[in-house]
Amino acid sequence: MKFSEYVQYDGLGLAALVQQKQVQAHELLDIAIERAKKVNPHINAIVIPMYEQALERAKHNTHSGQFSGLPFLLKDLHQEYAGIATSSGSMAFKKAKYIATEHSEIVSRWEKSGAVTFGLTNTPEFGIKGITEPEAWGSCKNPWNLKYNSGGSSGGSASAVAAGIVPIAGASDGGGSIRIPASYCGLFGLKPSRGRTPWGPKVSEQMHGAAMQHVLTKSVRDSAAMLDATHGSEYSSLFNIQSPIKSYIQVIEKAPKRLRIGFSTDSPIGTTVSKDAIQAIQNTAKLLESLGHYVEEAKPQIDGMALAKDFITTWFSQCAYTVNQVKQQLGAKDRDFELDTLAIAAFGAKTTATDYIQNLNGWSTYVSQMNQYFDHYDLFLIPSTASVAPKNGEVKTPAWQIPILKGLLKVDQAHVLAKGKFVEQLIKNNLQWVPFTQLANITGLPAMSVPLYWNKANLPLGSQFVAPFGREDLLLQLAAQLEQAQPWNLRYSSIQV
Fold this sequence. Notes:
- With about 500 residues, the protein is of the alpha+beta class.
- Helix content is about 40%, strand content about 10%.
């Protein structure tokens, strides 16, 4: 098999060839590694290769799972592979040469499906940013245009899939980290409902279930089949969601009923939304109507800034906890972390217990408001991102702020910047590129980014759908219908890396 043939298949398609003995698992892996060696110097997607180990496993591939023999990549964050170094995008872990002692549960399930892991992908430090530019590994480039970023935090995985190294790669989403790079890289990205996929065994969940594990794919059916392979709790899980009645791969074989879909292009935090994002949603609305669905402009009655504040409180507090844990575990010092990470951790560390509980209590309000919205609409349609991908280096701390942050951190006073009116500005600075994704994380609702729009410069921007809790089936069903009505797979042939 040649690469020109390999890249035409999705994950299920390649695995079927292995099962039918038309190609050997190690042949597929050879192609994937050859492609990686060719394009990775340009895109910087794979940061921890494990080629030799994977080739040895592929030669003795005996898996009978649905993805038997499929080359696969993990995200270098919370997707640990026993015996392999992992960094979480941080110089602290990289310097310590941290080696995972056991598989994460999600990794075990991917391996059981037959996938052959051959590397870990680039991610921002601890996944805290919507772009992938860690100091530990450098910027991850967007295959559509190398001047642009792939997004974050699953940026390396998105870049690898878009560039044709693999058709599927591991990802996770705590504030949009599947949907943002899916939007920027023209991929399908589903964030499952709270509790749908496992963490474990070291941690039971992340951010009270706001963060979820899944994959980035080119095809809808690959995402559906991988969710079939991984859904369900494990021994340490705090959330035990009801299992689907039918397999997701079965569900997508049938078109959805006529859906009632509300949409909005307004930024929930009052920031600018690009013409591209507005056009993407308008085009998607027209496509939905042509398929027989009812679409009208309508948004839930949620205070977007209040939700963003609650998200930021949780996000920053999680960062503070993470930095403290890494210091204790590895003996890391402040110099081993990025300045932005230290600043965010400083903000989070000063959150009081009462403020944090008040923040969590607000989550139930947003859940209630979304449930009320879904009394009238089956789905909520919004942009995945406020614009197409930013250029590399475009999203960064302003140069004039750096000495101020360093000075305040030195005297343990960085948190003073997160007081008063500065809070709203802090939120807008952090979320202006990606104000639409946190809603699904806070409420635990499933959401997906569907690649239906490319601008005149051939840069993609995703359309995001949010569904009621536990209704991944509805999202996948609609996504399959949209994929059939407006196929996007042929667009990848225009990528020249």
